[in-house]
Structure formats: structure tokens, C-alpha cells
């Protein structure tokens, strides 16, 4: 159709041709026979067939065949049965049913005889020359028909349409940065005289002017374009000054054009229309050729870069961001100064886009690529800040908007006060909430849509930590407030907003523009160079026109001066003019007699009498001098390229200086932009308490769910235990901590503390005999199999919370097999890579799943008789794949129940379904015969003493003489080699030695011996913890230890003497040990039932300082000042730290009824033993947990401070058959990698006494059995 219109055919002719073309293929395919009998047809159709047959004389299936087979029956059928006339193809077609044309019999569609008959019939029917007229009109039409393929015709027509859209609608011109519609609007307003200093006019008037003269399209497109040029949030430098409602950031539509008014801005007049003239730019006729319009406006600055543009054409699109006017002009001047300047050098001037809505631009290599190639993407973010309510404002992002006035300030203050009151009522006091205030939006992002998207994320629970969002924007600026829930991090929520909403978007560069009416993708330098060439052409054409005008004026001025300067010349001119018959004669007389040109003579004839005075002569002389200077300057500009460029630079710099506008968009380096937060980052960093049972159940309690109680009180239920289950341990952590779960067989699993189900913080406080402390989740906790997503649960030996940021990131390392390097998550571990976590496939020792009986029975730690001598210890140390390495950063200190201890570098590795091995645990049966027989005896006595302990104890007794494997019992974090490791035995002996005495072992090594218990066959390790390095100077012997050598011989000798002395002191018989208990217990034989110590010693008076808190299974505890403890060496016997009672002594002490709550406690079975030892500070609180799941929180200030040789005082009331299993500091510790631990970090990881209910009883039974024998 487009081709037919180009060929000059009318619409009817083009339609006929299209149908004829389609009919040709139909006739050829179906072999439609021509009419064999007479047929009636309009003359125009017949003459057309004749013309076609003359062009295609022969050949079956040609165009003439098809047309004759289609056109004649179609024309006959369309003529009707009655006479009439109609117009077809520009000819008058007459038809009548009475006119019949008889074709020769047998004449086919391709027979020339048919064509001759048809033409003859046309001539005969036409009458009076009608047939000749039809033939004469049909022949030119037939000559213009071209044979072409449908594909080619479609391609050419679509390409013509696409180029029309590209050039005339969607793509801006690189010279003035405008599309045709914008250019026509500005030119129409310029023609209407709507300058910046003139009154406004209705937008409908401007739209009508544009439609009627220049732009033959819909009024909506014109008005929308006008509105955009008036929006300050769309244009960096608005070109139209609007008066009325022109839309908003909420995508509100502008008012109707009959209500709004407009005029040009001053910047538009000076930057685009000042040099407009017939000689400066090219002009073209309008669509109706009634007048001319400019092809381009003579822009002074690169408007395409200043205001940007976006459009979608056919097969092409353009998206160019706006920039700062001063930066663009600076880059243009740099290009003029050095044409070989690079894109990187230009970017020192144009630092990036400058959006009218402000925001933040992330600067990285993508911006350089976009400016170099014209295509790329950059990240644009809204500007927001995090502020704390009621706390004087928080930090956050730079460039926050200023205050919003008294009304907004008062409203915000009232709201903050209300919010703080609500939070105080809900949580018991204090505000501390945060809110995010968004003050600037990303470019082209609708504010209302952003608010709706945030509200939808809040409603769908996809955005954690946000309670409300509201829009407080007004005419002073943007203000969107996002309320952050109490306890959540405002920075983390803001990072999630950047990730999940359009508060952060990608701006895609596509710098497509027209250069000499051809679309071209250009970078920053190419666009500036194209504009510079255009501007030089404009200045050159303007200078040429000005030079011509100046020369013409100088010519006239010289004629005036000649008339006025020569004496008598004026009188002669006047006489000649008066004597002339008309103006032409007067002009001829002046030219002939006075030597003037035609132009000078005409100008003299137009002079008034007042111009002939002497004053006017002096003015003319001044004008002549000025014109001569102007001509000289213009000639220099036209002759010298440097002078031309200087004019361009001067005019651009003057315009930039006239409109100074600081940058609105803040540039942010990509390295300074925080990565998208993980889901854990959005969780509030609140302290919590983690409880683990022996059957593999975990529960997390909020820290505020436990309130501090008095000493020696009964707590509340922390976890509801199933039948046959018991509490294994407790750990204090934070919701964002990484939780390391270590099994008794030396496997480690990793998860987040927040992954452990937690009840709501508003739970009801229940007693120890009631329901669990909270009701938001299952009181029994969650199975480890569900938390870790593993096939089955396992007993928990140690809980180690790793503070946020302490776990090192996964590193890239080489494979052990020498393969390509890969990430630590999947590659094999190298020989020197022996940290916590994954190991190479060559080193993997399959960890057998724990048997079901292990999960239900109480682990039996035999009274291991450690073989003395370096031979056995060396054998233990050399077994496995131990690799000694220098520890950099935190380490794990692991200790088994047999007393094997090691340090392991803390590393981040890939999780495994079977766990990551961290320690190789040996078997009791692997030792020498003497040790094996002692173990068998200990096992038998354990079974005898635990006869009343249930089925699990009976099962343990059945296997008393069998060889049993060692179990991992404790784990803690050490942040420095100067930390102090505390190892305490069940009998109360404590050994403190530096962590540097422990080498950093590999993951599959067995470690070294921690404490020597060979002199006490039935004693064993009962607790292990780590003291921070800053407490080491408080210990006795720390100075000597620091300067002494690392030899173990001397240390062992000294310790042996001290240990023997204390053992002799411990062996003094006491009356309470007499069977029958007839004698009353002496004061020295029972736990310290003394009155509370003075307030200045233990209850907030004079500070006591750091102490070592030791708690036993019967709920007896005390604080020992660290100054009374001695810093020793590994593998010594230790010193006595607390006197533990035997079974009979403990029963009498509990049943005596005197002292603090002794009478209210039920009888505990078996001898007492140590279960926990940790460093505490004044004012701290500890949480004690019992085997039945009862937890109690109390201040350490209420626990008495005693010496090492005392027995302590009761600190927790226990039910019948219950005992204490673990003690932790209530507050979550804070450990900083590479620095000394905070005071709270005396004991970070749990694991002290994980399930030692029966082995101690077995040891006591063995002692009794030995005495009886």
C-alpha cells in the first residue's frame, strides 16, 4: 500500500491492484476457467484487461489470465441487472444487463482474441467516445503496475514506516536534543510571543497552534509533551513555565489543557531560540506547505545531555539520562581545548548523571562503559536516612533533607512520643525505635507505587522488621517514613528496601540519537563532538549572515556620510530630487549624478529631514567605526577555526554562569555500597537462651523471658522434656549468631541461632512444675533433624554460639589432588587446611550415625586412668593427621571426657548431612591391659551405683566391662593465644593454663592430655571453659609463667608436690562419713550455711572483681577471686578449687534444715561433683539449668565469695532426683576477631557437663566398693 501511494495511485487503484495480485495466485492454483459464453462487464474492467494483455501477450497462468478470469465475472456480477453507473479506478463505469459481449468459442483467458473482443466491447458500449476514454485511462494505470515479491514489498513498506517513526517521532536529534513534537511546541510558543517576561496563555491555545500549523497528530500527544517540559521532576532544566496542575511524583495526571497556562522559560529562550533565524538553521515546509518550520533549533549547550530523552521507535529505543549544566559545559570546554581528550578525562568533568529528583548514583566500571559505548546500566537509589526516635536522631546516609517546618516537627515529635509510650507499655519501658525517612526518589519512580509496594511487602510478611509506612510529602519536598519495629536494625531494613523495592533501580543507558537524520549509538565524547560541530556550523552561518548585514549597513552609512560630508552635495541632491518626476527618476538621477549605488540612492530617498542635521552626521561616523570593527571581528571568526571555537566556548560558559545549579544526585562508590542483606540480617539482634536435650531437641528462649531471681530459688521450666529425655546443656547467644552443634562422636553441624524455633516474647511466666515458659512454639522444642535438615537427630555435646562477623568467609583454595582451584565450599581441603568445617574427600572419615540407644541413655564417661609418660601421650598426639599451624583469628577449644584437649582454627566450611569431623576420639579398649581392667571395674561400679537410675542406667550397667569410646564433652571459643583454659575435674581440682600451650591441631587429630588424673583413678574431667586474655595477669604465677620456658618437667614436679599436699588434706576422715549418720554433722563437713556475706563484699557495695564461679550438681556454688587461682601448665594435676561432698554428706547437708533453703530441697542421689566453672564479673547474671529442664536466672552478686578450700553455698533449689547440668552467663558474649575478648567472653560456648548424670555415681560406687573390699 505504501508503494502504491508512492507510485501516485489513488486508494481505489491501489486496492484494485492488491486484489488483482491476490487473484493471480488463486487463478494459477485453482485453474479457474474463463467464461466460455457471453459476459457482461463494465468498460473500465474490460479496458484494464486489454491493457494487461498488451503488456503480457502470451503465456498461460500470467497476470492477464488471472485478471481476465477474476475481473470480468466480478465486474459482471457487481453491475447488477439494471442500468446504472459507478466509479472504479478513477473512470466512470457504466453497466447494463442488456449489454452482452460474446467471446469466441474456445477462447481462453490467455487468448489475444478475448482481449480484442473486450476492448471492442468497451469502445462499442462507451458510445460518444466513452470507450476511448476508458481505454486511455486504463493504459497508464496498467503501465504503472510492477511485478514484485510480497516479501520485498512488505520489507520496503515496513522499513519506510519505521524510518518515518524514527526520524519524525521517537528519537531525539543530537544537535538540539529535541524530538519533532517538542521542537514544534517551542517554535509555536516562540511565534506566539510567549516569552518568559510575557503573560501566560492557555495551553489549549498552544496545542491548537501546534496542531493546526505543524504537527498533524492527536492533541493528547502534544499536550503530554508540553506537560513533561514543564515538570521540574522530569526535566533537569525545564523549558516551559507552567501555571496550574502539571502532575506530580505520584503519577497524578495534569489538569485539562483548558485549565492550565504556560509560557517559555528564560533558559529555553536563551539556550534554544536566541539564534533562531532563516540563515542559522535549515527550514522545511510544514505538512500543508503553508509555511516553514525549523529542522533543528540553534542550541547553545548540548541540551540532549542536559535534559536527556527517552523514546521507543520501531526497532530502536533511546534512553539518555539528564546531566548537570555546569558539568556538561565544562566537558565541552575540555573537548574544545583538546580534541584528543579521552572519555575517562571527560568523566572528570561529567562525573555522572544528575537527575532532577536527586537520589544516589552508584559509580563503578559500568558508568565508564556506558559513557564510552553509549550503552550500559548504572544503579540509581533513593536517598534515605535512619533516625532514632527520642534519641536525638541517628546516623545514616548523607545529604538528608532539611527540617520540614514547625508543623511537621511538632507532628513528628508527637508521633515519636506516642510510639515510645506504646513501646514502653509493651516492653516495660524505653523507646529506642528507629525509622527510615526517604527524602529523594530515584529518577522516574512513582512515589505512590513505591509506598504501595512497601505496604504490600509488609502485609505479605516478606519485609521483616517494618511495622508501618506512610507518605508525609508536601509541597516542600518528599518525605516517606518507614517505621522499623523495636529491636530490628534500621540499616538492615533499609538495605532490604533497596533490594526488594524500586527504591533502587537500574538506569539503562541507550544513547541513540539522530545524526544527519540517521540513528546512531554514541558515547559521551561522540555526542559532545556532534554538538560542537553543529554549534560551529550555527555560529559560522550566523556570522556569515551578520557579516552580510554589517557590510550592507556600512555601504549605506558611507552613502549618508558622502551626502553630508561634501559641501554642496546635499543641496544638489535635494535639487535633483525635487526636479524628478517620480521616485524612480529621482533614484536614477542620484545614481547618475552623484555616484551612488541603487541601495544608497534608495536609502537617501528614505531619509527624513531631521537626519540631515550635523548631529546625525556624527552618529553616522560612530556607527561606521563600529561596523568596521564588527566586520573585522566576523571576518576573523569565519577565517580562523580557533576564534570560532572561542565564541562557542564563551557563549556556553556564559549560559552556564547565568544558571548556576549545584549537583542534586550524590555519587556513591560501588565499594561503599553495602551488599544486599541476608534474611538473618533483618532479624533483631536480641540475646536469647538456647537449650538442648540429650535426645536432640533444641529450644530458643528470648532473653527477656527469664527474670532475675534470688539465690537458692527454684526457677521455671525452660523446655518440656519427653519421656526418657534430659537437658544436656544451655548456651547464651544472640539471634544473629552462628550456632555450632557438636556431637559426642566429634562431628560438628552449623546453623543460625534464629533458625531454632522460638516462642513469642510475651509468653506467660510459668513455674517449674507448670507449662513451659512460652507458648509461641512447641514447649518441647524442635528436633535437630528438622532444624538442620538432616536424616536423624543426635545427642548434643556442646553448643557454641559464634558472634556475628566472627565466622570467617569461605575462601578459594586449591584441591588436595592438585586440581583446579575452587571455593572452599566444594573443593578438597589441602594438607595445611585443618580448620573447623569441611575436609577433603581423601580425609573424610565416615561418621557412623548415633545409635538410638545413645540418644536415650546417659553417656557414661569412665574414670579414665591417664597413663603417665611421654610415650603414651606422644602416641595419642601422633595418631591421625595432626598438622600444627599458626592460628590466625579465633579458635575452637575442644575437650573430651577422657581429658584430651586441642585447639582448632575456626573456619567457614560447607555443611554436610553427616556433619564435619572436628576431633578424632579414641576407644578405651585401645589402651594397655591395666587401664582396660580399671575401666571395666569403673563400668561395673557405675552400673551398681546407678541401679535406681532407670532403664538407661541398666543398659549402661550391662555394658560396664566392654571397651567404650571416648566422647567429646566441651567446646568453647578462644579469640587469642593469650587466653586461659580452665579445666576442672569432678572432684573439684582446677587447672588453668594458657591457650598457647595447646597447639593448633588438624580436624582429624586426637589432641593432647589436658590434666593429669593418674593419682586419682576415679576422678575425671567435669568442666572446661576459656578465660579472656585480660584476666590472665590476675592469676598467681602469671609473671613467672610469662618468663619461664615451655619445658614440662619442672612444672610437673612442682605441681605434683602441691597436688599431693592437697590430697593429704582431703583425706582427713570426718565424722559425717560414718555409716548410719548417728553423729551430727560438724560445721566443717556440710556446705557453707553461713549468713549472707556483707553487702560491700557481694551485693553491690565494694566491687569484688573478676572471679571464677564453680557450681556443683547438687546446686552448691561459690565465687573464687582469680587472685587465689594459679596459672599452671597443661598436663599438671591442678589445685583444689572446691570441696565436694560424698553421697551421705550431701544427704545430711540437705536434710539438716538449717541454712538457706536446705530443708526445702529434696534429697539428691549420689556424691556431689563439679558441673560448671566460668569467669564472672560484678553485676553479671548467670542462668543455671537442671537435668529436668528447669532454668533459673540470678545475679552473681548474690553468690558468696569464698576461698578455694571451702564447699560453697546453695545457689539453686532442686526437685527430687534433679541436679544442675550447666551454667552460662546470661548476656550474649561479644568477641571481636583479632582482639581481646570483651569481659563477657569469659565463657562463650556451652558444653560444660553435657549429660554426666551417672558416671560420677559410678565413680563413687567404685570408691565405696574398693573401701568395702
In short:
It catalyses: ATP-dependent breakage, passage and rejoining of double-stranded DNA. By secondary structure, the protein is α+β, with helices and mostly antiparallel strands.
Give descriptors for this structure.
1269 residues; alpha+beta; five-stranded mixed sheet; four-stranded mixed sheet; 34 helices; 35% helix; 17% strand; disordered C terminus
Could you explain how this protein is built, in words?
- This protein is an alpha+beta fold and 1269 residues long.
- The protein is 35% helix and 17% strand.
- The protein has 34 helices and 46 strands.
- The strands form 14 sheets. Strands 22, 23, 43, 44 and 46 form a five-stranded mixed beta sheet that branches. A four-stranded mixed beta sheet has the order 16-11-10-19. Strands 12-13-15-14 form a four-stranded antiparallel beta sheet, with helices on one face.
- Pfam families: DNA_gyraseA_C, DNA_topoisoIV.
Amino acid at each position: 500500500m505504501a508503494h502504491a501511494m508512492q507510485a501516485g495511485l489513488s486508494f481505489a487503484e491501489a486496492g484494485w491492484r492488491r486484489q488483482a495480485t491476490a487473484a493471480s495466485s488463486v487463478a494459477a492454483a485453482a485453474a479457474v476457467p474463463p467464461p466460455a459464453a457471453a459476459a457482461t462487464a463494465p468498460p473500465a474492467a474490460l479496458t484494464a484487461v486489454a491493457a494487461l494483455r498488451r503488456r503480457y501477450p502470451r503465456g498461460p497462468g500470467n497476470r492477464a489470465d488471472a485478471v481476465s478470469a477474476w475481473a470480468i465475472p466480478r465486474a459482471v456480477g457487481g453491475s447488477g441487472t439494471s442500468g446504472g453507473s459507478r466509479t472504479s479506478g478513477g473512470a466512470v463505469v457504466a453497466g447494463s444487463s442488456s449489454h452482452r459481449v460474446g467471446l469466441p468459442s474456445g477462447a481462453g483467458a490467455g487468448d489475444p482474441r478475448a482481449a480484442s473482443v473486450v476492448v471492442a466491447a468497451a469502445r462499442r458500449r462507451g458510445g460518444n467516445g466513452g470507450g476511448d476514454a476508458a481505454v486511455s485511462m486504463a493504459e497508464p494505470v496498467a503501465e504503472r503496475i510492477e511485478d514484485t515479491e510480497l516479501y520485498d514489498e512488505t520489507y520496503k513498506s515496513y522499513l519506510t514506516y519505521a524510518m518515518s517513526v524514527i526520524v519524525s517521532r521517537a528519537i531525539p536529534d543530537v544537535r538540539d536534543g529535541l524530538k519533532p513534537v517538542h521542537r514544534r511546541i517551542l517554535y509555536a510558543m516562540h511565534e506566539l510571543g510567549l516569552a518568559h517576561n510575557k503573560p501566560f496563555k492557555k495551553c489549549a491555545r498552544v496545542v491548537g497552534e501546534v496542531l493546526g500549523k505543524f504537527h498533524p497528530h492527536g492533541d493528547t500527544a502534544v499536550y503530554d509533551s508540553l506537560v513533561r517540559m514543564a515538570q521540574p521532576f522530569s526535566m533537569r532544566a525545564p523549558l516551559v513555565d507552567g501555571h496550574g496542575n502539571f502532575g506530580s511524583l505520584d503519577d497524578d495526571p495534569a489538569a485539562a489543557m483548558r485549565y492550565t497556562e504556560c509560557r517559555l522559560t528564560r533558559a529555553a529562550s536563551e539556550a534554544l531560540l536566541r539564534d533562531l533565524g532563516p540563515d542559522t538553521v535549515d527550514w522545511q515546509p510544514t505538512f500543508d506547505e503553508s509555511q516553514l518550520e525549523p529542522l533543528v533549533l540553534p542550541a547553545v549547550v548540548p541540551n540532549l545531555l542536559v535534559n536527556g530523552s527517552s523514546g521507543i521507535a520501531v526497532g530502536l529505543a533511546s534512553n539518555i539520562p539528564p546531566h548537570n549544566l555546569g558539568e556538561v559545559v565544562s566537558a565541552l570546554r575540555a573537548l574544545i581545548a583538546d580534541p584528543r581528550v579521552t572519555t575517562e578525562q571527560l568523566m572528570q568533568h561529567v562525573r555522572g548523571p544528575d537527575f532532577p529528583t536527586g537520589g544516589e548514583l552508584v559509580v563503578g566500571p559500568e558508568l565508564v562503559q556506558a559513557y564510552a559505548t553509549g550503552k550500559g546500566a548504572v544503579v540509581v537509589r533513593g536517598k534515605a536516612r535512619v533516625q532514632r526516635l527520642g534519641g536525638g536522631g541517628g546516623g545514616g546516609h548523607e545529604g538528608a533533607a532539611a527540617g520540614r517546618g514547625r508543623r511537621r516537627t511538632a507532628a513528628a515529635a508527637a508521633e515519636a512520643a506516642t510510639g515510645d509510650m506504646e513501646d514502653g507499655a509493651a516492653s516495660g519501658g524505653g523507646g529506642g525505635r528507629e525509622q527510615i525517612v526517604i527524602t529523594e526518589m530515584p529518577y522516574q519512580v512513582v512515589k505512590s507505587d513505591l509506598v504501595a509496594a512497601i505496604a504490600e511487602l509488609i502485609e505479605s510478611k516478606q519485609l521483616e522488621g517494618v511495622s508501618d509506612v506512610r507518605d508525609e510529602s508536601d509541597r516542600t519536598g518528599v518525605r516517606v517514613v518507614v517505621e522499623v519495629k523495636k529491636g530490628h536494625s534500621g540499616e538492615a531494613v533499609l538495605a532490604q528496601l533497596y533490594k526488594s523495592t524500586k527504591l533502587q533501580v537500574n538506569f539503562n543507558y541507550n544513547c541513540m540519537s539522530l545524526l544527519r537524520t540517521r540513528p546512531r549509538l554514541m558515547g559521551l565524547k561522540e555526542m559532545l563532538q556532534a554538538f560542537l560541530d553543529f554549534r560551529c556550523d550555527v555560529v559560522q552561518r550566523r556570522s556569515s549572515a551578520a557579516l552580510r548585514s554589517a557590510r550592507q549597513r556600512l555601504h549605506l552609512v558611507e552613502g549618508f556620510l558622502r551626502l553630508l560630508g561634501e559641501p554642496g552635495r546635499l543641496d544638489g541632491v535635494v535639487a535633483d530630487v525635487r526636479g524628478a518626476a517620480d521616485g524612480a527618476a529621482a533614484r536614477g538621477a542620484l545614481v547618475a549624478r552623484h555616484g551612488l549605488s541603487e541601495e544608497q540612492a534608495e536609502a537617501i530617498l528614505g531619509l527624513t529631514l531631521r537626519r540631515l542635521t550635523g548631529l546625525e552626521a556624527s552618529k553616522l561616523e560612530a556607527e561606521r567605526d563600529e561596523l568596521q570593527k564588527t566586520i573585522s571581528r566576523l571576518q576573523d571568526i569565519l577565517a580562523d577555526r580557533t576564534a570560532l571555537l572561542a565564541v562557542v566556548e564563551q557563549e556556553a560558559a556564559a549560559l552556564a554562569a547565568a544558571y548556576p545549579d549545584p549537583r542534586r544526585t550524590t555519587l556513591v562508590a560501588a565499594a561503599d555500597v553495602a551488599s544486599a542483606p541476608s534474611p538473618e540480617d533483618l532479624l533483631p539482634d536480641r540475646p536469647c537462651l538456647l537449650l538442648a536435650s540429650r535426645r536432640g531437641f533444641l529450644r530458643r528462649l528470648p532473653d527477656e523471658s527469664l527474670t532475675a531471681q534470688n539465690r537458692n530459688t527454684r526457677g521455671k521450666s525452660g523446655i518440656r522434656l519427653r519421656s526418657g529425655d534430659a537437658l544436656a546443656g544451655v548456651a547464651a547467644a544472640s539471634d544473629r549468631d552462628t550456632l555450632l552443634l557438636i556431637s559426642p562422636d566429634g562431628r560438628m553441624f552449623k546453623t543460625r541461632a534464629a533458625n531454632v524455633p522460638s516462642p513469642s516474647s510475651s509468653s506467660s511466666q510459668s513455674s517449674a512444675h507448670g507449662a513451659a515458659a512460652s507458648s509461641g512454639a512447641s514447649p518441647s522444642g524442635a528436633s535437630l533433624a528438622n532444624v538442620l535438615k538432616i536424616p536423624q537427630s543426635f545427642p548434643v555435646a556442646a553448643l557454641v554460639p559464634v558472634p556475628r562477623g566472627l565466622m570467617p568467609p569461605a575462601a578459594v583454595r586449591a584441591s588436595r589432588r592438585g586440581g583446579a582451584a575452587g571455593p572452599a565450599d566444594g573443593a578438597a581441603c589441602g594438607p595445611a587446611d585443618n580448620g573447623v568445617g569441611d575436609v577433603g574427600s581423601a580425609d573424610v572419615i565416615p561418621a557412623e550415625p548415633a545409635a538410638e540407644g545413645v540418644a536415650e541413655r546417659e553417656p557414661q564417661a569412665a574414670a579414665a586412668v591417664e597413663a603417665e609418660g611421654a610415650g603414651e601421650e606422644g602416641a595419642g598426639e601422633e595418631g591421625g593427621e595432626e598438622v600444627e599451624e599458626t592460628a590466625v583469628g579465633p579458635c575452637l577449644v575442644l575437650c573430651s571426657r577422657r581429658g584430651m584437649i586441642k585447639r582448632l582454627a575456626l573456619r567457614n566450611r560447607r555443611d554436610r548431612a553427616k556433619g564435619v569431623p572436628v576431633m578424632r576420639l579414641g576407644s578405651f579398649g585401645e589402651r594397655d591391659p591395666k587401664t582396660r581392667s580399671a575401666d571395666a571395674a569403673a563400668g561395673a561400679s557405675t552400673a551398681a551405683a546407678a541401679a535406681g537410675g532407670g532403664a538407661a542406667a541398666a543398659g549402661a550397667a550391662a555394658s560396664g566391662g566392654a571397651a567404650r569410646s571416648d566422647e567429646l564433652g566441651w567446646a568453647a571459643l578462644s579469640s587469642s593465644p593469650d587466653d586461659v583454659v580452665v579445666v576442672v575435674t569432678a572432684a573439684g581440682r582446677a587447672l588453668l593454663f594458657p591457650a598457647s600451650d595447646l597447639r593448633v591441631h588438624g580436624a582429624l587429630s586426637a589432641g593432647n592430655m589436658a590434666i593429669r588424673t593418674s593419682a586419682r583413678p576415679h576422678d575425671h574431667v567435669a568442666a572446661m571453659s576459656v578465660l579472656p586474655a585480660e584476666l590472665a595477669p590476675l592469676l598467681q604465677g602469671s609473671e613467672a609463667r610469662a618468663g619461664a620456658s615451655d619445658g614440662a618437667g619442672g612444672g610437673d614436679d612442682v605441681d605434683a608436690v602441691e597436688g599431693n599436699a592437697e590430697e593429704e588434706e582431703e583425706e582427713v576422715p570426718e565424722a559425717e562419713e560414718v555409716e548410719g549418720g548417728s553423729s551430727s554433722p560438724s560445721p566443717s563437713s556440710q556446705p557453707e550455711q553461713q549468713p549472707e556475706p556483707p553487702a560491700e563484699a557481694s551485693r553491690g557495695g565494694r566491687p569484688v572483681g573478676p572471679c571464677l564461679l564453680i557450681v556443683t550438681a547438687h546446686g552448691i556454688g561459690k565465687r573464687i577471686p582469680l587472685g587465689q587461682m594459679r596459672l599452671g601448665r597443661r598436663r599438671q594435676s591442678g589445685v583444689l578449687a572446691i570441696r565436694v561432698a560424698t553421697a551421705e554428706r550431701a544427704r545430711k547437708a540437705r536434710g539438716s534444715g538449717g541454712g538457706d533453703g536446705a530443708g526445702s530441697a529434696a534429697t539428691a542421689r549420689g556424691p556431689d561433683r563439679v558441673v560448671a566453672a566460668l569467669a564472672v564479673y560484678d553485676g553479671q547474671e548467670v542462668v543455671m539449668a537442671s537435668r529436668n529442664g528447669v532454668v533459673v536466672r540470678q545475679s552473681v552478686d548474690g553468690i558468696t565469695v569464698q576461698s578455694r578450700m571451702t564447699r560453697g553455698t546453695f545457689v539453686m533449689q532442686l526437685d527430687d532426683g534433679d541436679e544442675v547440668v550447666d551454667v552460662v552467663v546470661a548476656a550474649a558474649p561479644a568477641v571481636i576477631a583479632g582482639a581481646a575478648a570483651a569481659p563477657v567472653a569469659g565463657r562463650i560456648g556451652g558444653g560444660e557437663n553435657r549429660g554426666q548424670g551417672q558416671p560420677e555415681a559410678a565413680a563413687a560406687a567404685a570408691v565405696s566398693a574398693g573401701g568395702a573390699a
